[in-house]
C-alpha cells in the first residue's frame, strides 16, 4: 500500500499550486496513473479522501485515468507501449526492456475557486 504516501505528496503539490493561484478551495483534481505504477484505483480514492482532509482539496472531485507505459526494447531498438509488467516486446518478443514512463502518479490538472 504505497497509495497513502503517494497521496500525501500529491496533496502537498496540489496545495502548493492552489495557493499560487490564490485559490480558496480545490474543486476537482485530475490524476494520471501510470499503467505500471502498481496503484490500485479504489485504494487510491480512499487514500486521497483521507489525505485531503482539512486541506484545500477536501471533498474535491477526483478524476482518474490510466496512462499506458512506454518502454524501449534493447534487442530490436523499438519504442513500444506496454500495459503490464513482464510484457514482451510486440516486435521481437524480447523481455529486455527499459521502462521510460508509466511507473508514476502524475497530477494533470486542477480546478480551483
Ligand atoms: Zn509493479
Ligand atoms: Zn523488440
UniProtKB/TrEMBL annotation:
Gene3D superfamilies: 3.30.2320.80. Zn(2+) binds at residues 73, 76, 89, 92. One of its GO terms (molecular function) is nickel cation binding. Keywords: Metal-binding, Nickel, Zinc. GO terms for biological process: protein maturation. InterPro entries: Hydgase_Ni_incorp_HypA/HybF_CS, HypA/HybF. Ni(2+) binds at residue 2. Pfam families: HypA. It comes from the Bacteria. Involved in the maturation of [NiFe] hydrogenases. Required for nickel insertion into the metal center of the hydrogenase. Belongs to the HypA/HybF family. This is Hydrogenase maturation factor HypA. It comes from Chania multitudinisentens RB-25. The gene is hypA.
Amino acid at each position: 500500500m504505497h497509495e497513502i504516501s503517494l497521496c500525501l505528496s500529491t496533496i502537498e503539490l496540489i496545495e502548493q499550486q492552489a495557493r499560487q493561484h490564490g485559490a480558496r478551495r480545490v474543486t476537482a483534481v485530475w490524476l494520471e496513473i501510470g499503467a505500471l505504477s502498481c496503484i490500485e484505483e479504489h485504494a487510491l480514492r480512499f487514500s486521497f479522501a483521507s489525505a485531503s482532509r482539512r486541506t484545500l482539496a477536501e471533498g474535491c472531485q477526483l478524476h482518474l485515468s490510466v496512462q499506458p507505459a512506454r518502454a524501449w526494447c534493447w534487442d530490436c531498438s523499438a519504442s513500444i507501449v506496454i500495459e503490464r509488467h513482464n510484457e514482451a516486446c510486440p516486435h521481437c518478443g524480447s523481455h529486455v526492456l527499459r521502462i521510460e514512463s508509466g511507473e508514476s502518479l502524475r497530477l494533470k490538472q486542477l480546478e480551483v475557486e
